[in-house]
Amino acid sequence: YSFINMNIHLASNSETRGKLLKKAKIRFSQIDHGVDEDEVKTSLQNQSPTKIAVKLSELKATQPNPQNKEDLVIGSDQVLDLEGKLFNKARDLTEAKSQLIELSGKKHHLITSTVVAQNKNIIWRHLDKSTLVMRSLTTKEIDNYLNEVDESILNLVGVYAIEQEGIKLFEQIDGDFFSIQGLSVTPLINFLRQHSLILNNE
Known about the structure:
By secondary structure, the protein is of the alpha/beta class. It is built from seven helices and seven strands, in the order βαβααββαββαβαα. It has helices spanning 15-23, 37-43, 49-62, 93-103, 139-148, 177-180, 185-194; strands at residues 8-11, 29-31, 72-82, 85-87, 107-118, 121-134, 170-174. Strands 1, 2, 3, 4, 5, 6 and 7 form a seven-stranded mixed beta sheet that branches. It is globular, with a radius of gyration of 17 Å. 32% of the residues are buried.
């Protein structure tokens, strides 16, 4: 594959993922991936949470049609795996509360799949699995937390933003901080740098 005259696109409407790339000073544009995530999850409901994350990230990277076929498209997906059970994004604050009650005092995994496609072919992939242990929370603590946060938290799997108030919910976090936020930025940057897509002095 060639990397001349090529732009980088992030196939995501996620503000957090966009911020991670902006902070790293990577030039990119955000485009819509057009993937119906609920439909894909339903069709893959017998698969493991890891397989679902990988499939969704691949679809997000390969569905868009950038004008220049040489352009790179980054697709990323994250799922929450609680003892083999897949958690979907909470639809409302009531569902958010019941999810936090279920996660309270337990260990869960966040699986983040990040892929890069060029001309609809996957040319790079990275899978990250982080382990998080949530403190045993009282109902009052959960209510206080949900009152404190913005409703945009409902767009996040597990209803917590680790880089904000969500950090208060945890007893232990083992994993890559960027991947936990939804995009494996460090290995992605290494890939881009190896192919001279970002310059060392940028």
